[in-house]
Specification:
962 residues; alpha+beta; Mth169, Chain: A; Phosphoribosyl-aminoimidazole Synthetase, Chain A, domain 2; seven-stranded mixed beta sheet; 32 helices
Length: 962
């Protein structure tokens, strides 16, 4: 039964701007509902109907409204607005978390108006049209344009809006699933119907186990096995045996190799062979940890949150950044986050509905949503988002990628942790609900045109305010020694957290003790829910009371769910009844690992045919406005990238703050001189032509970002994030295997160990019988210490009269480059780093920076020399003069290739004339030349071409945001 409710609406005062309302009008127009009518936006809340008017006014004035900017409208229970304006109300679906409403509910106690059992406050979004609209059209269009149908519902406010009643308690009893006698087809059908995402071979392994156990599995046991064995959690493809077959363009077999464990023999092998003592924790915890100083380390992790972001961009990206923050909190005994990163890969702008697969969102809407999600979560957590990029490519039209990273500071003596039998299993943070059910298995399957309806429960909703409180509690409890181990409830919720922490000993869990957002959850839903902002601690008995008191002081729940044991089994109970009992050995080691076939057929590409003559100015302006090169400042300005006060090198630099940076530099502790350089590399257009080169280019770019900012190449650590299509298909797995080999070869050449990683291998979209795969995508993230952040180098030009040096050789291979696409050159051999020369170049540049010989520096990436030179001018009032005849090269290359080739391992360096001789002593026989100088006037003057005003470059580069 629904409850009567007061409705409070808070809309901008007359004369105040209403950007949300204006954006809503534009969104409706883009969906075909053209109108000159103004749309007004209001924040809304539903309050319990038992409250009196004075209480509601007090709540509205003192708690909910901004008295300067907002006007308060109050509607009594059952009252319908009579102003003749049409109102739309957007509210969350039943069972979907409402953090804003929950915060308001908690805050009522501060006004001494506490809620009674079962009462809640619900948040709304309200849109009011100032002109009459056709109700059916208004509702139909708004349901898509102003809301996300996966998690929200839209209604006309032409009838009373009531609070939803709290669900009645439903008893949940042990349920067994008959499967011991099922045939193969029936096993597959069972996996599909339960949303387990398990293969036929895996279902057979489970069947064989329970035949030996002489009983049927319970539902929670199958759910636990599905979560633990999911591709998302187990990484079965990368850690399994692979047979690689590479053939030439003619189909003849050129190479065959068998890997027993692909990841172990490629990415892990780099770290094993290098084994640097400054790597404190690698591939064994929620994040990798490397030394910053003798006593302090930095924990680093980059996660993906792709499938949820395709359905709900805002919530998916927000919980992506929230999840990776918890990874940092759950590393060792807890690291303190001080920086975040993000990389978004989305479809091209301008795709209309006819070009998009059914059931997908417009890529611009996805991009706006994921940016807002990261913005709102990171800003509210007080963590600066300092590094990242945006990739636009038609291959992401159905499957966007969201990479979220976080970096934290951890004392060396807090890196190790252990779980002991007898420790209490304590859940701290948010309550458990249905949001995020089957998130791990959902992420292990392809999306399809009905995902937005059938997989809605897999979308989580984040609450950064709760997570910030959990962060504060964790660090304080860590320093007081109140727990022995901690991890986050990520994919799989309690199932993954408790299952991993108890793997070596065992655990007994009382699921009925878990705090719930609302009654009605079954025990298996409680177990695998991925409701956000929850951490699990292993707490010694003598520390339990103090930890619970600390949590109570901060207003956060801490609940004992059971104990870790010495039985080697996972025992699950619900209201005293045993509903699950599995041996840890089978849970973590029982998944079958069949050999997978990986194939790759070389494309037989030829050298890039750069044209002898082009419109150089016109091409440069097109390059600067290309989706891969165009300014991302509209994204960066939404992030508080300077909160905590430690950001030294910012994403955009120079007097104007409009010059794109390469790596960024952040100080974890502003009272000390040490800092961390952060960079990333991604080369999807190269990877489409040659996966090995794509991976090597990604590693090279990440290393360039580090070195050009002042980081030490000999102390650089790498992280790998593989996002691929369905790797059950041999060609997809073939490109992945070659990319893993490229990671191995490049990282080993640079002497840079991998310390952490993540994969997402089912990024395909099914429409009918067709499947659309993303491009092969590897994100390589790099971090390195700076012992003195005053040596950090930016990209903005410093002084007219300084010389411009190009370090690195240019070659003609331009396959996958921005200019080759613009000029219509077709596919050709892509660039690859010279892995013998590249480490020497970066080491020499690092020495030059340490000796203070470099005034500014910029690496050459998308758009080549012409784009890099242009970007250096954007952050200052100065210009550049370039002479292409002086560019170091080993072959004859037309001017177009010299301008726009994207050969890796190249740097533009601003050098004071008096330092040139010392620079030559360091660079010695390396390929380098003085190719120009800094001008006092804001122009780009390339010898042999008409000079271009920097304002023209800036206008081209600062294209319109979506």
């Amino acid at each position: 039964m629904k409850q009567d409710a007061w409705r409070v609406e808070l809309e901008p005062r007359s004369g105040q701007p209403d950007p949300v309302g204006e954006n809503a009008r534009k969104a409706l127009a883009n969906r075909g509902l053209e109108s000159e009518s103004e749309i007004r936006f209001a924040r809304g809340y539903l309050l319990p109907g038992r409250l009196d008017r004075e209480q509601v006014i007090t709540i509205a004035q003192r708690l909910l409204a901004d008295p300067v900017a907002e006007e308060i409208l109050i509607f009594e229970p059952n009252q319908i607005p009579e102003d003749g304006k049409q109102r739309l109300v957007v509210r969350r679906m039943p069972g979907v978390a409402d953090p804003e409403g929950a915060s308001a509910s908690q805050a009522l106690a501060l006004l001494e108006i506490p809620l009674t059992n079962g009462e809640t406050v619900e948040s709304l979004r309200c849109f009011r049209s100032l002109e009459p609209q056709d109700s059916n059209d208004f509702l139909k269009v708004a349901s898509r344009a102003l809301a996300n149908p996966t998690i929200e519902q839209v209604s006309l406010a032409d009838s009373p809006i009531r609070l939803r009643a709290t669900p009645d308690y439903l008893p949940s009893t042990r349920k067994e699933i008959p499967m011991r006698r099922l045939k193969d087809d029936e096993l597959s059908a069972l996996s599909s119907s339960m949303g387990l995402a398990l293969s036929r071979e895996e279902m057979r392994a489970i069947q064989d186990f329970f035949i030996q156990e002489e009983r049927e599995p319970t539902d929670i046991e199958l759910e636990t096995l599905a979560q633990t064995w999911s591709e998302h959690c187990k990484h079965k493809t990368l850690t399994g045996p692979v047979r690689l077959r590479v053939s030439g363009a003619d189909g003849a077999l050129e190479r065959e190799k068998v890997y027993d464990n692909l990841l172990k023999e490629t990415v892990f092998e780099v770290t094993r062979r290098l084994s640097p003592e400054w790597c404190w924790s690698v591939f064994s915890d929620n994040a990798g940890v490397v030394a910053l100083t003798e006593d302090v380390g930095i924990a680093v992790k980059v996660e993906t949150h792709n499938h949820p972001s395709a359905l709900d961009p805002y919530g998916g990206a927000g919980t992506g950044i929230g999840g990776v923050i918890r990874d940092i909190l759950g590393t060792g005994l807890g690291a303190r986050p001080f920086a975040a990163t993000d990389v978004f890969c989305v479809g091209l702008a301008g795709n209309d509905s006819a070009e998009r697969p059914a059931g997908t969102l417009h890529p611009d809407r996805i991009l706006e949503g994921v940016v807002a999600g990261v913005r709102d979560y990171g800003n509210r957590m007080g963590i600066p988002t300092v590094s990242g990029t945006v990739i636009r490519h038609p291959g992401y039209i159905a499957n966007p990628l969201v990479f979220a990273g976080c970096i934290g500071e951890i004392p060396r003596d807090k890196v190790e942790k252990e779980t002991r039998p007898g420790d209490f299993i304590v859940a701290v943070g948010g309550r458990t609900g249905r949001d995020g059910i089957h998130g791990a298995t959902f992420s292990s399957e392809a999306l399809h045109e009905e995902s937005e309806t059938v997989d809605a429960a897999a979308v989580q909703i984040g609450d950064p305010i709760t997570e910030k409180t959990v962060l504060d509690i964790l660090i304080e409890a860590r320093d007081k020694g109140l727990f022995r181990s901690v991890t986050d409830c990520g994919a799989g919720g309690f199932s993954s957290a408790v299952g991993e922490m108890g793997e070596e000993c065992g655990a007994e869990v009382n699921l009925s003790a878990a705090p719930l957002k609302y009654p009605g959850l079954s025990y298996w839903e409680v177990w695998i829910s991925e409701a956000q902002e929850r951490m699990v601690f292993a707490v010694p008995p003598e520390s339990l009371e103090e930890l619970q008191s600390l949590c109570q002081l901060h207003g956060v729940e801490a609940t004992s769910l059971g104990t870790f044991t010495d039985t080697g089994r996972l025992v699950l109970k619900w209201e005293g009844e045993e509903v699950g009992n599995l041996p840890m050995e089978f849970l973590h080691g029982g998944v079958p690992q069949p050999e997978r076939l990986a194939t790759w057929r070389c494309l037989g590409l030829e050298t890039t045919a750069w044209p002898e003559s082009i419109d150089e100015k016109g091409t440069l302006l097109k390059v600067l406005s290309h989706p891969s090169v165009v300014s991302k400042e509209w994204v960066v300005r939404q992030y508080d990238h300077e909160v905590q006060g430690g950001t030294v090198l910012k994403p955009y630099q120079g007097e104007r703050g409009t010059g794109p940076g390469d790596g960024t530099v952040v100080k974890p502790d502003i009272s000390r001189k040490e800092g961390v350089a952060i960079g990333c590399g991604i080369a999807i257009r190269v990877a489409e032509l040659d996966p090995w080169s794509g991976a090597a280019n990604a590693v090279d770019e990440a290393m360039r970002n580090i070195v050009v900012a002042g980081g030490d190449p000999h102390r650089t650590a790498l992280l790998d994030n593989f996002c691929w299509g369905d790797c059950r298909k041999p060609d997809r797995l073939g490109s992945l295997t070659l990319a893993a080999e490229g990671c191995h070869d490049a990282a080993l050449a640079f002497g840079a160990p991998f310390i952490s990683g993540k994969d997402s291998l089912n990024n395909e979209y099914r429409v009918g019988g067709d499947e659309v795969s993303i491009p092969p995508t590897l994100l390589c993230t790099a971090v390195a210490p700076l012992q003195d952040t005053s040596l950090a180098v930016g990209t903005q030009l410093r002084t007219p009269g300084n010389l411009l040096v190009l370090l690195g050789v240019t070659n003609s291979n331009g396959g996958g480059s921005v200019a080759s696409e613009i000029l219509g050159l077709g596919d050709s051999i892509p660039p690859s780093p010279d892995l013998e020369m590249a480490p020497t170049i970066m080491e020499a540049l690092h020495r030059a920076i340490q000796n203070k010989l470099i005034a500014s520096a910029h690496d050459l990436s998308e758009g080549g020399l012409a784009a890099a030179a242009s970007e250096m001018t954007l952050g200052s009032n100065y210009g550049l003069k370039l002479d292409l005849e002086r560019i170091p090269t080993n072959e004859s290359i037309p001017r177009s290739g010299l301008l726009f080739s994207e050969t890796p391992t190249r740097f533009l360096l601003e050098v004071e004339p008096q330092h040139l001789s010392r620079l030559g002593d360091i660079f010695k026989t390396l390929p380098w030349e003085t190719i120009g100088e800094v001008l006092g006037s804001p122009i780009l003057d390339i010898v042999g071409q008409e000079a271009i005003e920097v304002d023209q470059l800036r206008e081209a580069n600062h294209g319109a945001a979506p």
